[in-house]
Amino acid sequence: MVYFQISPVGFDCGLEKDNCNKYPDFCKECVKAKLQKFGLNLNYNIKFTIIDSEEKRVQLFQDLIWQKFLDVLNIKHILLMAKESGLALLDYPISGAGVNTELLTGFIQANITFSESSAASEGDGTQGGNYQFYEFQYETFNILLKNGQFIRICLVLDHKVSDSLKILVSEFLRDYESIYLDKIGEHIRKGKMHFEDTLDYMIDTFNVKLVFPMVLTHTLLPDELDKIKKNPIQKAIIDFAKELLASKSFFFIINLIDEVQKIVHIDANKILYEVYRLIEKKIIFPTTIETVEESISDFQESRAVRIDRNELISSIIANDDEISELKEKATYMSEEEVKTSINSYVKKAETAEKGLAYKEAQKEYEMALYLASGFDIKDEVGRISFMVLELDKKIKDLELEYALKVGEKAEKRKDYIKAINYYKQGLQILKNVQDLNGHESQIKKLEKKISNLQKHL
Is the whole model's pTM more than 0.90, yes or no? Predict the structure, then answer.
């Protein structure tokens, strides 16, 4: 017999609170009684929350989806390892962070050995058990590690882990070992096994699709179009998505939220909630899901035509002689030559990025992205797209630093108009990323500084 634990489950009792003499003191007992009639086994640790209005229900989902988004943005790499041998079973980079997993696994093993030996010497029986979390620093990253019975999971993070992500890691580890127990057992008994077919389960569990490149459906049914027109936030989302797709063949949710917020001054979690609803309706969907891709792409198109129609060219490379040469050369390239060229462009971009030549790096990344998309190499499109996104963040940081420095120099010279102008540029950059990077205090200080300078005019 297979037993299913279903959490969280929503239940509409069908009564208005003003018309129920049991509300709110006896709601829990009432709902439990109704659910038990459906044959549900309600154990002692059932969590019971009253959401007595539509506004509260929507707010609950807004907060939940926003936290999912923040958690997956924090994850740079996921690594599954065999607990005893330390061998990597599944190695999944979510961004182009460039983590060397061989060095990381050695570092992890050394930290676990040290932690367990230290705990044993201190006589703490809870340290060194199978199910605790390990948290430590590795290079510029935060590492979260958790052991299961047979495997361990490692998350490479940008920032400190949230409580919600810890809960998700625990649930994933428990369920993964249960679902793929036979495969794990075969690995333990016979050695090397392929675990790539479990990747979709990992992607779904950690909501990785929220940071995939996105596209819009090509067709909207009339009733869906009417619903979108009646929802001003959804309408703004669709309009801005179309604008972003005019220059590239995909967009990221984070960029879409920034664009919508420039016009619609509401919280980012409310925008994401509406984006999520559009994703559920398959009006917005990830480009990396093959079955969905097939519904909007004509794979009968020749390689030469796909290359010719590639829309991933930005203004940075659109008029460059190199892209013309690449365009012609790509028509006759084999897939192996394409992959070699992609790696070459990425290496050049990484070198340029390390040398702070960001515009050159951007150009090289986009040349690689052009090839990957033209030859429909989905894994590379996703990987390079994240590299472009990370580089874009660095460029914004540089633009912010420049705007603030110029503003400060102008302020010292009492050139208040110039100072205000550059401070406002910096303020706009901060506001575009404030929900994800916590710049609230810096924004307030800059707004106050602008206000004070305006008194001199």
Answer: no
